[in-house]
From TrEMBL:
Superkingdom of the source species: Bacteria
InterPro entries associated with the record: ANTAR (IPR005561), GAF (IPR003018), GAF-like_dom_sf (IPR029016), GAF_ANTAR (IPR012074), WH-like_DNA-bd_sf (IPR036388)
Pfam families: ANTAR, GAF_2
This protein's UniProt keywords: Transcription, Transcription regulation
Entry annotated with the keyword Transcription: yes
Domain ANTAR: 173-234
Annotated SUPFAM superfamilies: GAF domain-like
Keyword Transcription regulation in annotation: yes
Protein name (Swiss-Prot/TrEMBL): GAF and ANTAR domain-containing protein
Length: 242
């Protein structure tokens, strides 16, 4: 990967953008806002307002978890539909993938033709670090960028290599928060069910198994979640709603 000349007019803009990447606080940003910030910073050093997205690959199922514009989202989905393209290749192989010019690409001709028609001239996907069997890629779609413009292409490659770090960290942070929320919800559910079981056991001299069966029977008969049946019983003393 080439490095821009330190004395070049764009060198200051690049260094400023990279410094801003390092100052992103995960506690203050969602994954979507991090991707938007990355896109805004990319636009400082690249022409024609590029757009970014993040692909996550769980097993064989790709998903766009964040995008800064409809063009990126639409072209991600076209790659998922076709089953091939730079974002899927980068996520699956762990190596950067690119289309330097969508009008001349031979590796993914079907997708390249769709991208060119949509107004995207070039694309670069940089893999996210693999974590817990989940892989992914940061995708940057440029409206005006060609293979002939090697200097601009080098800027994009350099910037994306740095940008992938906060994007990956934001994804891992969001996933950790989601797991914590699910765990908290699960603990709350278990707590109220245990409360309801205890009341049933005391009131009707039931075993723990029989008390839980009573809750699940009402759940099935009323098409209500067991947790909601238990919460109502704890609050009102009634298994069935009036």
């Amino acid at each position: 990967m080439n490095t821009p000349d330190a004395g070049a007019p764009d060198a200051v803009a690049v260094q400023s953008a990279l410094a801003d990447l390092g100052r992103i606080s995960l506690a203050e940003h969602s994954l979507e806002s991090v991707v938007r910030t990355v896109t805004e910073l990319t636009a400082r050093v690249l022409p024609e307002a590029p757009i970014a997205s993040v692909t996550v690959l769980r097993g064989a199922q790709p998903t766009t978890v964040a995008a800064s514009g409809e063009l990126a989202l639409d072209l991600d989905h076209e790659q998922y539909r076709l089953g091939s393209g730079p974002c899927l290749s980068a996520a699956a192989t762990g190596r950067p993938s690119e289309i330097a010019d969508t009008r001349q690409d031979r590796q993914w001709p079907d997708f390249a033709a769709i991208a060119a028609e949509a107004g995207c001239d070039s694309m670069l996907s940089v893999p996210l670090p693999v974590h817990e069997q989940v892989s992914g890629a940061l995708n940057v779609y440029a409206r005006k960028l060609t293979a002939a413009d090697q200097r601009t292409w080098d800027l994009l490659s350099r910037f994306a290599a740095y940008a992938v770090v906060p994007v990956s960290n934001a994804y891992l942070y969001a996933a950790a928060v989601q797991r914590a929320e699910h765990l908290e919800a699960a603990l709350d559910t278990r707590g109220v069910i245990d409360q309801a079981k205890g009341i049933l056991m005391e009131r009707f001299k039931l075993t723990p198994e029989a008390a839980f069966q009573a809750l699940t029977r009402v759940s099935m008969e009323t098409n209500t979640k067991v947790r909601d049946v238990a919460a109502r019983f704890v609050a009102t003393g009634e298994l069935l709603a009036d």
